[in-house]
Amino acid sequence: MASSLINNSHHIDFESVFRLDDASMVQMFETLIATGLKEFLGCLAVFYEDALTEFFANSSVREDAMVVSTIGGTVIEISQEMFAAAFELPTESLIDLTDVLKNFVFDARSLFSDSKEQVSMSCLKKALKFHYRLLHDILAKTIYIKAGSFDSVTRDRFLLMTTITFDVKINWSSLLFGVFKEMVTPGSRQAKGYAIQICVLLRNVPGLELGESKSFPVPRILNEKTVHRFVSVNENVGIKEVADAPRARRTPVKTTVSKKRPATGDDEVAPVIKKKRTTKGKPVAVKRLMVEEPDTAISTSGEPVAEDATGEREPVAEVAPGDADAAIEQVLAQLESVFKHQDADRGCAWGCRRGH
């Protein structure tokens, strides 16, 4: 468990960082000393893993606001005054960060920005200058003990960065001890930390056996070498982001095609073929019947003829005017012959229709 308490924490070797050739970085570390955090951030970098594990397992906050615990049967009591005295923390001045003057916040939005644009109070860390990115990480990992990603700047951390940068006095005793109490409160979502700071307090308890000590991991100590590495990594990340940025692609423009039927010529229009409506069913063959009525007319040539159903005209025998009865009989005989032919044709047509 103790190893997890130092995974994200920083210890600052102030003597080493002041040898940096980066004036902005050196100035940022000087502001941390000016605000009163030198002993808290630069204390002895050793911790006692077994003692820390037992301390957090048995710790709680008493009604009088003291942090209490037991290690090996020894009762541990830590008050805010003891906490402040161990690290020479300021005990007066600003407590509520919302009291920071607005003009400081406005100036900080331009001062912290890595571009010509002002940053918002809640922004991405990569929008800040390198030394303010490092200041943000120190506050997030060693003051507020945040777990998880550190890519985003919160409003509280932005205000705290503003107070440190513009030398606004802060009651660090109240702020840090408040975070400490949250750590030891059962069920709290506050991540646990302050490993080397708690061990400083435990060493002052008379007769307490702490066991074997361990050195703080070198990569977690901010010195001249690790700060150079921090700057180099951030520069390479910025270059890689620019190189990996996808180029803008031109959006293909679709040609709109008219849905109207194009003309086949300058003045010609393609004919529209309409479908004929047809009835369903089997086709019926229809044969046209040729019915002709008898013709009793007399030929203009002077020779009487009779026309049968076939359309052929036959000569009619000439009758004497005086023989009226014989003439009538002859006409009746011719008519009877014509009607016989017509009846025969009708019978044939009717039979053909029924056959189909």
Automatic annotation (TrEMBL):
It comes from the Eukaryota. Residues 295-315 are annotated as: Disordered. This is Delphilin-like.
